[in-house]
Sequence to fold (240 residues):
Amino acid sequence: MILEKKARFNPTKLASVYPSGDLDLLIARNAELVDRYLRLVPSYNGAMSEMSTKLEVLDDEFSLLLDHNPIHHLERRLKSPSSILEKMIRKGYPLTIDSLKENVHDIAGVRVICNYISDVYQLSDMLLSQDDVQLMRRIDYIETPKPSGYRSLHLIVTVPVHLSTGSEHIPVEVQLRTVTMDVWASLEHELNYKTDHTPSEEMKARLINCAGAAAELDRHMEELLQTSRSSAAADQQAVS
Ligand code: 0O2
Fold:
C-alpha cells in the first residue's frame, strides 16, 4: 500500500529562518527558482515512482520466497516549494536552481515502514545491490539515534529516470523504519508541530524516554521473530 502524503507547510519553521514569515513574499522574490523547480517536478515524480516500484517488487518477492512481507506500507511525498526554500535558507545555500540540484537531495522522498528491524537492513542491502541504484549518502539513525530520540535508516540514492531529453540520475531520500519507529516519529512530529513553540526540556526528556521504550519493543519483537523462525526451521527438519 502506498500513501501519497501532502507536504505540510510549517509557518513556525519558516519564520525561524525568514523573519517576516511572509510565504507569498518569499515565493514572489524567488519566482524564477520556483518556476524552474516546477519544471523539474516530472523528473522527481519519476524517481519517486521508480523507487516505490523497486520496493514493491522486493516485497512481492519476499512474500513469495519467504512467506513474509517486510513492508508494512510505503509513503511518498514531493517537497513543496515553500519547504525547499525554507531548507535552502536555513542551510545557507544560494537560492538558485543549480544550488537546489546540487544541495537538496530530499525533494523526492519515500518512507518505507517495515515490520521488523531485520527487514529494514535486508531491504536496504537489496536496494543498494541493484545496478541502477547509486548510493550518495547513508545515515544510520537506528545504530546512532538523533539527540531527539529519532531512529530510522536514511539513504540518499539516485535512480535513472528516462526523459524526452535522455536519461538522468535523480536523487531520492529513502527513509526506512519499523512500525514502532514510525509511531514515535509521527507522534513526536505531531506534538512539536501542534505546540507551535520550542518543546520544553521536560517534554524532550519524556519523548527520549518514549523513544527508548520503542527501541526496546523493537528488540523484543525481533527476538520473537528469530525464535519463531528457528522453531519453524526445527519443525521442518523434523518432518523431512
Ligand atoms: P519532511 O516533511 O519529513 O521531509 P535537515 O534536518 O532537513 O536540515 P538533513 O541532513 O536532510 O537536514 O536531515 P536529516 O535529519 O538526516 O533528515 C531529515 C528528515 O528526517 C526530516 O525531514 C524528517 O522526516 C526526519 N527527521 C529527522 N529528525 C527527526 C526528528 O527528530 N523527529 C522526527 N519526527 N523526524 C525527524 P523534514 O525535512 O523535517 O520534513
Q: What stands out?
A: The CA atoms of residues 18 and 172 lie 27 Å apart. The radius of gyration is 20 Å. The chain has eight helices and six strands. The longest helix spans residues 201-239.
